[in-house]
Amino acid sequence: MSTSSSSAAEKIFIMKFWKQCFIVFLILLICLVIFYFNHKEDNTYILKTLELSGSVNEGDTLFKMNCVGCHGITARGLVGPDLHSITQRLNDKQIIRQIIKGLTPPMPSFEIDPQNMSNLLEYLHSLK
Ligand code: HEC
């Protein structure tokens, strides 16, 4: 008698356990899908940007409109760091992520189309 009642309790316990596992699994799966699509979107953006060839002059104008407030008119640094030789410290992908992601407040994230991002990159490459 006592063994059968304990095994019934055990079954309920096991069912609850699997239910919880399933819920955790579902949540993880949703996170993974969201991460995957975010990442894929970034990668297509980055690949598209790297395919284009940028113009230093256009990039200079963009820089003057968006970045000088923090990085200084000659990119020698103000609130934000000096960006000379940045292209030797960070690769293009890292720089693009820095600009579109807003990962390091107070630097905001920028929405720039690939052509203009390419121009901006070219400008940063021209800073020696
Ligand atoms: C509101 C101020 C602000 C603006 C506007 C801004 N930045 Fe920044 N930026 C910063 C700060 C602060 C950092 C340093 C973040 C950290 O690493 O702590 C930074 C870091 C960077 C870095 C990485 C430097 C390194 O040494 O790792 C790059 C590249 C950069 N900014 C480029 C840009 C470009 C290009 C623009 C214009 C499109 C821009 N930033 C606009 C504040 C700003």
How would you describe this protein?
The protein folds into 2 domains: 1-51; 54-128, Cytochrome Bc1 Complex, Chain D, domain 2. It has 6 helices and no strands. It has helices at residues 2-51, 56-66, 68-71, 86-89, 92-101, 114-126. It is an all-alpha fold and 128 residues long. The termini are far apart. Bound molecules: heme C. The site of heme C (HEC) has 20 residues, from helix 3 and helix 5.
Order of helices and strands: HHHHHH
CATH architecture title of the largest domain: Orthogonal Bundle
Number of helices: 6
Biggest sheet features: none
SS-based structural class?
Answer: mainly alpha
- Broad CATH class of the largest domain: Mainly Alpha
Segments where pLDDT lies below 50 for 5+ residues? none
Average pLDDT works out at 93
Compounds present?
heme C
CATH topology of the largest domain: Cytochrome Bc1 Complex, Chain D, domain 2
Counting structural domains, the number is: 2
Form type: elongated
CATH H-level superfamily title of the largest domain: Cytochrome c-like domain
The fraction of residues in strands falls at: under 5%
Helix content: over 70%
Oligomer: single chain
Q: What is the tally of beta strands? A: 0
Q: Rounded to an integer, what's the Rg over CA atoms?
A: 25 Å
Distance between the termini: 84 Å
Topology:
Elements: H1 2-51, H2 56-66, H3 68-71, H4 86-89, H5 92-101, H6 114-126
Helix pairs in contact: 1-6, 2-6
The protein binds heme C.
